[in-house]
Amino acid sequence: MTVWDDLTGQPAAIEVFRAAAESSTLPSSAAAREALAATDAAPTAPDSMTHSWLITGPPGSGRSNLAYAFASALLCRNGGCGVCSDCRQVAARTHPDLAILATDRVIISIDEVRRLVSASQFSPSVARYRVVVIEDADRMAERTSNVLLKALEEPPERTVWILCAPSEADLLPTIRSRVRSVRLRVPSTDDVAALIMKRDGVDHALAERAARESQSHIGMAHRLATNDEARARRAETIELALSVSSVGDAVRGAARLLDIAGADAQAITEERDAEERAAALRSLGVEPGQAIPPGLRSQIKALEDDQKRRATRSLRDGIDRILTDLLSLFRDIVLVQLGARVELVNEAIAADVRRAAENNDSSSTLAAMDAIADARRRIAANVAPALALEAMLVTVAEAGRSASRKVPQ
Description:
Rossmann fold
């Protein structure tokens, strides 16, 4: 068993990081800059090691999992065996030479990056390297990115930075010029299903359906395969979109979608919030059921404020998951309308998809997909989610009625 065994669908990227971890030399800062400057003229050697890395790929492709596997391989005395104390500490995010920045908020603050940059200056305490991981590097504002840029320009000799982001375009050009990029692809349905079966012990049919309906998003596939309520919420979302036919339906449907997103977000955060609060109270010496002393209330209040910010982001993520599911539905419908011989994402309700395809035309389905894209942009621009969802469903209803008048009965 090694730290690479639980990764799936990324053999080329794994080979790059495995070879780099096995390389015994980390170039000096000046040599690293020269190597990066030369990458436009000549490809980087596949087994070369460098100070700064960027892992890009679509959501659910396993960016952070690969980052921590690479960190384990760098910090482990056995090159990433997966079972030693070093690997267990990396898995628990407690290794003394591992620094992490993973935000549950919408943006990463400049103070967080400054603290991380300060921590990166220390020499490793027990391992060959000090490894710094930023999971959501795309959530940094320009001013914050410039703080990180200074650290990437002159990294300590034994510090390795690993940044994760959906794409290179999400980072400043000056950041991109100082990192070695490794792009991940979307894992296949079969790869994700095999991983879910191995890790979660579910049967093949459920694992395959979860992998397909999550569109190969590993985290969502895990939730759909192991959580009955998550599957029920997704099914209700799809059913609601298929049944909307009037403005009244759209208004009621938008309110219900918002409730579903809220319930999904609460299910994800509730247990974690309780565990964090209990751990904080234990660390402060407060017994269960005991009143919090006045001198400690500010620390608990800070934790609660962080949890509220996380809840806001979790709700946004829940809404985006709903929109992704709806997009998969209308994608299936238009493929059936166009006669494409492609596997459906929502194969479990193929009969409903084909019925919707027969009762509408492709132009109305494409209009619905445009409405979903518009809703995403509006929510990202801080339009009230309820209004954005209402407008989306009104467009879906209008497109459906317009198409029904065109389709011969």
